[in-house]
Design goal:
The chain is an all-alpha fold. The chain is built from 9 helices and no strands. It has a domain at 59-189: Tetracycline Repressor, domain 2 (Orthogonal Bundle). It has helices spanning 9-23, 30-37, 41-48, 51-75, 80-97, 104-112, 117-143, 153-172, 177-189.
Amino acid sequence: MARSKEFDRDVALARAIAVFSQHGFEGTSTEALLVAMDIRRQSLYDTFGDKWKLYLEALERYASDSIGAQLVALESAADGKAGMTALLTHAVARALEDSQPSCLGISAICEFGRSSPEVVGLTDTMGRLLTRAVERRVREAIDAGDFAADLDVANASQFVLATLTGIKVAARAGASEAMLAGIADMALRSFR
């Protein structure tokens, strides 16, 4: 008779995300995952497949949750400029929430670049979602006269995405709240 699972799959996945975020795929041993997830080796294989499949599921969940939260911040504001402000403020707040901030998305891109089609597929899909939303809000801000009329929407959007990444990396390097807020402010000022 098969034993029933004695763990919460979502909790175990969240713990795997934390370990992969800190150490990357190659830097994370299966043993470290088992300890962090508080599961047995067979449970890992039965539930998630192998380490690579677990990593891809963790990356997909992390990207979906992260991009979803960013989209909520961006879209919940009344206008384009306020949306951009909310997005950058959200990035600073998220970076400050963790004493050892990390981002599985950035980690995956740094570790794999364009070498893994599965990782590229996940990160590109999520990146396109956020890019389209940022572009729309930038256009709104231009149309409202809040951003410079000659601002290139595509370049501005890529700059915002790079700024979001920069905020996360700066936080990991120990930047203060004032420094992170300054980065966000400089990004907003560049659109005028």
